[in-house]
Specification:
hydrolase activity, acting on ester bonds; Rossmann fold; alpha/beta; two-stranded parallel ribbon
């Protein structure tokens, strides 16, 4: 075979492979367009919809197809977990058979009852400390700030008190972009699945001071606006409401000052928001500023001066996260708000 034909054949094969990869990539983007758009929103804080494409019926069908497949999968697994109720089956049979209907007890008709008086407002006793028993569990909620602190807390709780914990902290998450990661929903599902949880520790914030999406095709809510705050507070309140419904205590850790002035000012705003909601629900609030020695809303230093005059580094060079020392200091302060009842100390 001439060399020219060999080269031509190889070129055609390479072209076919390249075309196949491009088509496959396009199909994957078509099916996963919602996930890609949500990631783009969370990363770049913009709508990320492609003009002229997002509203195309054929293009949007890919998103609907993926949603339908997800719904079908969820319904399939939910169906597998269902247990048929014998009494429902009996009632169904009786409903179709006149002779069997007589054997099914009739539902008694109750006399009208006067409407009860509205309950008195719930009196909330503010927490001063979170009380736990050795059989209880602790649930860690948050972003990369919590990812650094949670392991130290979990280690102390387990080794010293034999208390288990659930750490679902995830970097780049917060409350502003539930389409990317929905913390209120995650808290709800986790509390339903783990009945031993008696304390939630929340630590997040730096990923949230941005304009916030509300619905596809609608303008973003501008950060710090009244609408933004109302929507954001609803998400914070949802976590507190879930905790109250499950008789779970909450320690909410407010983020500290940051190196960059704009981000630090935003953290001061969020701290007040978190603190006001924690106080409203009678739960515990801890400002990381108090731990790191920041005595106002603007000061920042990567170092903390200890009692003996030595300086220890508590923040890493990005001006956001903590060194191991900083993580441990915050973990220790959180532990000071927890009282373990009826325990046998296993390690000091």
């Amino acid at each position: 075979m001439p060399a020219s034909e060999t080269v031509g054949s190889q070129f055609i094969k390479a072209l076919q492979v390249t075309l196949g990869l491009l088509v496959t990539a396009l199909i994957l983007v078509w099916l996963n367009q919602t996930s890609i758009r949500l990631y783009c929103q969370q990363k770049y804080h913009a709508d990320c919809s492609v003009p002229g494409v997002a509203d195309n019926a054929l293009w949007s069908f890919g998103a609907r197809l993926t949603d339908a497949m997800d719904d079908a999968r969820s319904a399939f697994f939910a169906r597998l977990e269902e247990t048929p109720a014998s009494d429902q089956a009996a009632s169904a049979v009786a409903g179709n058979d006149p002779e069997l209907q007589a054997l099914v007890p009739a539902t008694p008709v109750q006399a009208p009852v006067a409407a009860p008086e509205p309950p008195a407002p719930l009196k909330i006793t503010p927490l001063t400390i979170a009380n736990l028993n050795p059989s209880d569990e602790v649930f860690f909620v948050g972003d990369s700030l919590m990812q650094g602190v949670a392991p130290h807390l979990a280690n102390t709780l387990l080794k010293r008190y034999k208390i288990n914990s659930i750490n679902l902290s995830k970097q780049s998450t917060g409350l502003a972009y539930p389409g990317f990661f929905n913390w209120p929903l995650t808290v709800e599902q986790t509390l339903l699945a783990n009945h031993n949880i008696r304390l939630i520790v929340v630590f997040l914030g730096p990923n949230d001071p941005w304009d916030m999406p509300v619905a596809k095709g609608k303008p973003f809510l501008r950060f710090h606006s009244a609408d933004w705050e109302a929507s954001y507070r609803q998400r914070v309140e949802r976590i507190f409401d879930l905790a109250r419904a499950h008789n779970v205590q909450v320690i909410w850790v407010g983020p500290p000052n940051m190196r960059k002035d704009k981000l630090s000012t935003a953290m001061a705003y969020l701290r007040e928001l978190y603190k006001s909601e924690a106080e409203h629900y009678g739960q515990l609030y801890l400002s990381a500023n108090d731990v790191l020695g920041y005595h106002d809303e603007t000061s920042f230093s990567p170092y903390l001066e200890s009692a003996d005059g030595k300086k220890v580094k508590t923040r890493v060079d990005d001006g956001i996260h903590f060194t191991t020392t900083g993580q441990k200091l915050i973990a220790e302060r959180v532990m000071s708000l927890i009282n373990i009842q009826n325990h046998d100390l296993t390690e000091r």
